[in-house]
Amino acid sequence: MTYANRPTILTGDRTTGPLHLGHYVGSLRARVQLQHEAQQFLLLADTQALTDNVGRHRKVTENVIEVALDYLAVGIDPEKSTILIQSQVPELAELSQYLLNLVTVARLERNPTIKEEIRLRGFERDIPAGFLTYPVSQAADITAFRATHVPVGDDQLPMIEQTNELVRRFNHTVEQPVLVECQAVLSNVTRLPGIDGKAKMSKSLGNAITLSASPDEITKAVNDMYTDPCHLRVSDPGQVEGNVVFAFLDAFEPDVDKVSELKSHYRRGGLGDSVVKRMLDERLQSLIEPIRARRRELADDRGEVVSILRRGTMRAREAAALTLSQVKGALGLSYF
């Protein structure tokens, strides 16, 4: 693979469960396109997933293959994108160790993304050290592959900011431009709400639609979607803001004028929730059906999926080892 004068992309997902539509609009769609334009590394973040899944490690490791199947099913080409398993690239852990010396506990605790994740998990002060420091691990992932662009949701912007802080701090410390700063790549839909409308879509919160969802599961999820509680009769004017069905139509219906017309009709009254939900159900069914079929086909040959991961991980180790060698040299740790 040759990528002269092309940007380098690093992105990934924690292996705590199959991917869902939030992942799809958040960055998966972009990744499929970016693989034709850039050198792309897709990281299966099993090590990071272990930071808040003590005692549930089997779930984490089993989902490595599940997430890989999702990547391949949506159109990721392993000949154009490098898919790797985080735990199998020890250079990432070593780089994390060096970067940890450049950040304080107080700075990590101020990270808005970490603060929100701590609140959601109810950790309070019982925060696993690995979880608190996972922004540093993420920075190591990004810098090890010299990523210039990172597709993320808007909730991950503080992580990119912290990565660049560490890059500047390291380069200043060693007085050499060893590590590379990156920039976030936001999709048009930076965050998809859960079907309950109360939080971002998450499998652990039970408010997600997975990419392998059956037709019945999709229909049930759409029918359960939060709309406007004050829209009691078809004739009542309805509110579009905060209405999950319209949030999904914005994300998945390519006919923008059609969605705009639906919103106007809903606001003035005369358009029932059931009609809008039926339209959304049809759109999601047509989107997920080919992904589900491709995923089922790939799952029949898991040995090939493992081979893809092995090849990608070995390519990734070569790239990470080169960066690590430069880091150690700059720190004076190249003794032999």
UniProtKB/TrEMBL annotation:
Enzyme class: ligase
InterPro entries per UniProt: aa-tRNA-synth_Ic, Rossmann-like_a/b/a_fold, Trp-tRNA-ligase, Trp-tRNA_synthetase
Superkingdom of origin organism: Bacteria
Any GO MF annotation of the entry: ATP binding
GO BP annotations listed: tryptophanyl-tRNA aminoacylation
Keyword Nucleotide-binding tagged: yes
Reactions catalysed, as given in the entry: tRNA(Trp) + L-tryptophan + ATP = L-tryptophyl-tRNA(Trp) + AMP + diphosphate + H(+)
Pfam families named in the record: tRNA-synt_1b
EC number(s) recorded for this UniProt protein: 6.1.1.2
Protein keywords: Aminoacyl-tRNA synthetase, ATP-binding, Ligase, Nucleotide-binding, Protein biosynthesis
GO CC terms of this entry: cytosol
Similarity-based family: Belongs to the class-I aminoacyl-tRNA synthetase family.
Protein name: Tryptophan--tRNA ligase
Organism expressing this protein natively: Trinickia dabaoshanensis
Gene name in the database record: trpS
